[in-house]
Amino acid sequence: xxxxAGKAALRWTALIVAxxxxxxxxxxxxxxxxxxxxxxxxxxxxLWPRQVHWENFARxxxxxxxxxxxxxxxxxVVATLQTLGLLVICSLAGYGFARIPYRHSRTVFYAVxxxxxxxxxxxxxxxxxxxxxxxxxxxxxxxxxxxxxxAFSVFLFRQYFLDFPRELEEAGRVDGLTRWGVFRRIVVxxxxxxxxxxxxxxxxxxxxxxxxxxxxxxxxxxxxxxxxLSGLLTSQNPQLNLLFLAAAVSILPIVLLFAFLQRYLVRGxxxxxLKG
Length: 276
Prior knowledge:
- By secondary structure, this protein is mainly α.
- The protein contains 14 helices and no strands.
- α4 packs across α13, α9 packs across α10 and α11 runs antiparallel to α14.
């Protein structure tokens, strides 16, 4: 009994230490975001600001140099559109690789996988030339459309659909459904958990994207939240407390999304065939 109690105490201690280490950066962001600039750079450290500056929220969202509220809206729009487009395009591609046989399907699939070995930064120059020639600079189209396809997402969808019960699809074909009807009315409704997992992964990746929005969003009105954070850091008079507060606000939607939908991430990994 004592041995079991000791193991339980050790387990709880490890969990508490891990939780503290995980929450420490969030505490620092909130603490410095609600402090004055002088208190952040002061040699003596306090666990909480002596005077909490709640007005920093108003200063952050009313800044003339960095339109932070607009950048949050832009990031939300880009993440939503990219996620919806990616789910449609990559799910169709993955289903085609998994279920539609044709002569060169394996060759095409390996060619898609080969693009994963190309660093993303290598494609920035040709992608920028294309987007610029189309007149999509500082435009949501330039931010959204290049991210509508992901070879890794196609791979995950293919792995999932390979294990999808063929009996359900065959029953739909017997009832007179076309291949598109089977996909839309049988496969997708029975794969909502996996689609939700892919949506979470896509939203997180789109929200945290920095290099491509930095290149394309040349106008402050088209900045995403990550570009706005860099604007606060590189301005002529950087205000550290606003920078910390902006970072805390920018990660809050992703933290909430992950907290509510983390079970779908685990399900997505297990159902895609990527098991250890």
